[in-house]
Amino acid sequence: MKNNLKTYSGESLEGNFYAIGLNYKKADAQIRGHFSISDIAKEKILLQAKEEGIPSLTVISTCNRTELYGFAQHPYKLIKLLCEHTNGTVEEFEKVAYIYKNHDAVSHLFTVGTGLDSQILGDFEIISQLRNAFRESKKHDIINPFMERLANAVIQASKRIKNETGISSGATSVSFAAVQYIMARVPYISEKNILLFGTGKIGRNTCENLIKHTKNQHITLINRTKEKAEKVAGKFNLIVKDYADIQSEIAQADVLIVATGAQQPTISKELLYLKRPLLILDLSIPKNVSEDVMENELVTVVHMDHLSAVTDQTLDQRAGQLPLAKKIIAEVEKEFNQWADNRKFAPTIKALKSKLSEIKDGEIDNQRRKINGFNEEQAEIISERLIQKITTHFANHLKGEEGSAESIELIRRVFQLETA
């Protein structure tokens, strides 16, 4: 496997392309919480990376994964950035982490971006999160052509899989799994009082699924910023209460769904004055429900990690679509890798063509002085065609299996080429 992506399109890149991170497969919710990155921290990471000379970097932080994609001389540079701006340590990271390099990193991003690495197969919420992450990198001018092209390729693969396979059939996602769980365990759910605390993306998606599948007219929204809750409520004609009312609203609820983005628990036993059973679903990373709520015998707590066990007929159907989805990824990924590999030697071919043109100009000038009636126009045409044929032969050699970094270096030495 070719792993040298250091030069392309005339650009000299520092280091290799890496994907470093952790996800739900080896890191539980508590550890993922330690490495959760807020929007402010994301910006700080990008700014610091730019100051440190990292040419391109993108940061992903969701409930199920935290990942950095970027160029570096050594992956530790990216790991250090991550740990400096989260509550996680290098030692903790090393126990659950993965590190992919160059083509393997490219493959990993395709798998993540197309929903094949999601906790619930076919959960395509990740692609919009990836798109936003790359947009943020571009905003801070810390994305190079390689990663920009890669982002577009992953988005293209995701669109094709959605359109050409049934892997996204059914509304299975973390938010839908939460609603499935509630419907399976709470009888007469349409008559129960549901309190949704937090109206971020997962909160909004959960709200939509609740309305669609439970037919419940007793859903109350609370958010620290009331205006955000009112915006969501307006769309669905729901009740909004002030954050100051959360204790009394919990007391009246049968189901409490917590989907806030806080870094510390927002629900603790001190808020619970219960006279009836309360089911709490914590859809937050890090966990936003303190473990001490379990001291109340009326409380049942379910975290999002448990929801991945929720089965649905659509999951079996989706699994049957995996071969077709992987085939699409392989096609798009192959095109991208060909582009990336070809760009490695583009500066050399460009420099070779310039060198041959320089030799041609000198020789035509020499022959013009020596030969009376020298046909410069014909000589120019023949010379240009020869240069084109020679450079095409070299390009085909470098594109083929025999092409390598050694071949590029040999051409540069023989023709005394200077490339950027």
Q: Please state the overall shape, judged from the principal axes of the Cα atoms.
A: elongated
Instruction: Determine the fraction of residues in helical runs and give it as a percent range.
Output: 40-55%
Tally the structural domains: 3
The CATH architecture of the largest domain comes to 2-Layer Sandwich
Find the CATH topology of the largest domain.
Answer: Beta Polymerase, domain 2
Strand order of the biggest β-sheet: 9-8-7-10-11-12
The class by helix and strand makeup works out as alpha/beta
Residue-averaged pLDDT: 86
Strand content: 5-15%
CATH class of the largest domain: Alpha Beta
Subunit structure: Homodimer.
Function: Catalyzes the NADPH-dependent reduction of glutamyl-tRNA(Glu) to glutamate 1-semialdehyde (GSA).
Protein name: Glutamyl-tRNA reductase
Domain Quinate/shikimate 5-dehydrogenase/glutamyl-tRNA reductase: 187-310
Present the secondary structure layout.
Blueprint: E1 7-8, E2 11-12, E3 16-23, H1 29-34, H2 39-51, E4 57-61, E5 65-72, H3 76-84, H4 90-96, E6 98-101, H5 103-113, H6 125-139, H7 145-164, H8 174-185, E7 194-197, H9 201-214, E8 219-222, H10 226-236, E9 239-241, H11 246-252, E10 255-258, E11 278-282, E12 299-303, H12 304-307, H13 313-319, H14 322-370, H15 376-399, H16 405-414
Parallel strand pairs: 7-8, 7-10, 8-9, 10-11, 11-12
Antiparallel strand pairs: 1-2, 3-5, 3-6, 4-5
